[in-house]
Amino acid sequence: MTDQAGPRPINPMLKSALEFGPLLAFFAAYLALKDRIFTIGGTEYEGFIVVTAGFIPVFLIATGLLWKLTRHLSRMQLVTAVLIVIFGGLSVWLNDDRFFKMKPTLIYLLFGTALGIGLLRGESWLRAVMEGLMPLKQEGWMILTRRVMLMFFGLAVLNEVIWRTMSTETWVYFKTFGLTAAVFAFFMTQSSLFKTYAIEDEAEADKPAE
Predict the structure, then answer these.
(1) Domain limits of the chain?
(2) What is the pLDDT of residue 12?
(3) Which of 113, 156, 166, 181 has CA atoms 20 to 30 A from the CA of 173?
């Protein structure tokens, strides 16, 4: 879902609000409703399930607005949206929070596997997603892709450990802040790689990889 002319520029604050707003709204709603039980159609639902049911349309609306404004959604955003609908829907339909808690695991496994397949083909599929943000030499992209792949697998394992061994509230905090902080911290630790393999010459940046 990409406009032929490329993504349309929008206000960075608005873009961040559309990307992270639904997650923060989920967190706030969970804190407000976590101890409540709702009876709907004769079935009792915990606050977490009700908040999950509300999160799905909010997320889809925000994603739709992001596409309308930019005419662009990355493959990662599309996959995330599909999995949120599937696993969030299963949690609500079956009244079982485990499906929604498993969603990050599936997302990170899919992304990690996709990057691994690209590496086996001698390609950096991460480059297609992030090249506009950080121009690197091909060797740098391959190293970064391997590291990001391992990060995704590590986060998948970590999510499984958290939701299976700790409380729902702990998982919500982890999902809202822990995963984002972990990704941010990871890229902060890659500063030496960015310096070593950065492309400073514009002509070199446009040169296709051999």
Answers:
(1) 1-96, 97-210
(2) 83
(3) 113
